[in-house]
Amino acid sequence: MKSAALRGDYTKAAHDYSVEQDWSSYTAADHALYRRLFERQSKLVPKYACPEWIDAIARLDAASGIPHFEKISEKMRRATGWGIVAVPGLIPDDAFFTHLANRRFPVTVWLRKPEEFDYIVEPDVFHDFFGHVPLLFDPVYADHLHEYGKGGLKAMRLNAVKWLARLYWYTIEFGLMNTPQGVRAYGAGLLSSGGELAYCVDSPKPKRLPFDLERIMRTEYIIDRFQETYFVIDSFDQLMRDTAPDFTPIYKRLAEK
Length: 257
Ligand code: PHE
Ligand code: FE
What we know:
Elements: H1 28-48, H2 51-60, H3 69-80, E1 83-87, H4 93-101, E2 104-108, H5 125-132, H6 139-157, H7 161-173, E3 176-179, E4 182-185, H8 188-191, H9 196-202, E5 207-210, H10 213-218, E6 229-233, H11 236-242, H12 248-256
Parallel strand pairs: 1-2, 3-6, 5-6
Antiparallel strand pairs: 3-4
Bound molecules: phenylalanine and fe (iii) ion.
């Protein structure tokens, strides 16, 4: 969550790091670039995205340009009680977890540059919106992310954020799911990626292991290349069930190693 130089404008952010989206400041070029990103990913998702994501994106009407967060938030509130909060970019752990624990998903306001079409290190509005927002229309996923936020605040008190962050990485960002059609992506880092979305499903190279909470917490991750290991859930119900127990004893074990 932290990095030396973040590129967003943090000067206007409130205490909780929220900002105005200021939708009118996006240029025609921004909307056109967003549309190109949306179109490329839309060709891939029928074959590679999980059904819950595919169902939700159809309800969002978000293909024509960078969406108005407030309009989408209204729909989300009706569906699952979640809303979007606009942020300048990555935010500190406590602010991030507090938003999730209150059913607010932080979405970065700025869009990548054209030369970052294929690859970007920091999350931008396309990653946050296209990758994360649709699944918040799924009731079980939505409840799980709420629990994750509360679990994050608890992990801060227990000095265990490092391990909980790995769970986020291998599920919310890079998670795979078994479906009747085969393995599909539900992780936002996959859904918004031009290259990794097909790779994570089709390539024989990476490991695809069944979801295993403690193993995930022991597995370091890489942020600047395709993943070497993915963890596969059977359903969001399974994810909810397997993350429901108290993590305190697990954190203790991990700290002893
Ligand atoms: N069960 C976790 C704990 O006790 C909280 C949690 C729930 C974390 C869901 C992640 C996802 O800390
Ligand atoms: Fe993300």
